[in-house]
Hints:
This protein has helices at residues 14-25, 32-42, 45-55, 62-74, 91-102, 118-132, 139-153, 155-162, 175-187; strands at residues 4-8, 28-31, 82-85, 110-115, 166-170. It is an alpha/beta fold and 190 residues long.
Amino acid sequence: MLNVVIFGAPGSGKGTQSDLIIKEFGLDHISTGDVLRAEMKEGTELGKIADDYIVKGQLVPDELIIDMLAKVLDGKEGSKGVVFDGFPRTILQAEALKKMLNERGTDVTLMINLHVEEDELMNRLLERGKISGRSDDNIDTIKSRLDVYRLQIAPLAEYYMKEGKRYAVNGVGTIEEIFERIKEIINRYL
């Protein structure tokens, strides 16, 4: 299986590039946010437990998220692979994901790390806020989200670098130019 973690700061183009990877390589998409919402909507046991945490304003424990991802992955028998979106976000989550995938005879194949300078990220997110009307795309929230990324999430790049799976990709240019860079890397694994 070709399992890709797409990684980058808010505004780096993860969603856009994920969609292109999925379409080009015939991969499935696993978004932790979508999985959580689906489990809660269906009223599954995992969904009910997650809902209890969310209602209390708490983070859903990693073990529960891994159990949900395992359930989704098990339902994708015969899949060519997946693009993980929004997960992992911490080293502990990366280790749990690795263990879960290894139990299924697979692993994360590579991590695409979209690199965009902070000034460009700010401009992109402010522009997105104007176009989409997203309330979280304002200067204060953007700065806070970038701080969280830098302090809590960015260490994952180091984790995947030690695993020999991190590929830094210049996330500046046209969507097509950036995707060509990503395709070149993924094609090495096919």
